[in-house]
What does this fold into?
Amino acid sequence: MAEGNLTSMLEFILLGFSDLPNLREFLFAIFLVSYMSILIGNGLIILITKVDAGLQTPMYFFLGNFSFLEICYTSVTLPRMLTNLWTKKRNISFLGCSLQLCFLLILGNSECFLLGAMAYDRYVAICKPLYYPVIMNQKMCLQLLIGSWITGIPVQIALTYQIFSLPFCGSNKLNHIFCDIPPLLRLACGDTSKNEFSVYADAVLFAMVPFLLIVGSYVKIIVTILKLPSGTGRYKAFSTCSSHLIVVGLFYGSGIITYLRPKSSSSAGTDKVFSLFYSIVTPVFNPLIYSLRNKDVIAALRNLLTK
It folds into this structure.
């Protein structure tokens, strides 16, 4: 029995979409196209924000870094998902699973704060336009970017250690598409209430606080926009924020449902669907949302393609 327990702790089996064997090739094609779209689309955004002189502003500085973050975030999960679908081997080592979860938490945390920094940038641009060059200078942008990347790293590492310190004495079959907290807690033996509290506290501190800052920024932005005398001015001001709002809605909507739902109402199937939204759908649509709704980005892409 002890030997069986030891074996179950050495690796996990990611069941993924094993219940849909007839769709394996189709899913592989979909995820491969999605990953290539993420790499190409976000890569183009990074390129044009670096080389186009018209996009050397704080808004596009954050957008380029956000696109880089999206590539990193999806690269933690999608290549392994593709490998599992292609080879039909679903095992992942205990260490590999813990590293995957740790990077997911750190990068997800960075995404929350970077979305908050982008909202603050729009708030200053619209609500305090005369002070915008002074407030959003290069030093401030770098501080916001570095803070977004490193804030919470020790906490996310500690949370990962806490999750993987639990006894996994039963099945080692993880009914999910990658290593994530909800399915791992389902496999743990004994009382996991303290761990669930830590997860909720982490989500509130490092996800909901930036979300509330985003909401507060946009409340002030909307109030300011409504005071503008010109309808054209109101439309132009709101159009610069709409792309960011759509991305925030996609990312936070799926993330909140996944991590802040009561345990009794969660299921493996719905967890997989919502995980796909914040890990794949948002990174796929990010460059489309920003390019289709932004004339400056469209113009920069045209200039790049022409050259």
The longest strand covers residues 11-14. Residues 1-8 have pLDDT under 50 and may be disordered. The CA atoms of residues 124 and 131 lie 8 Å apart.
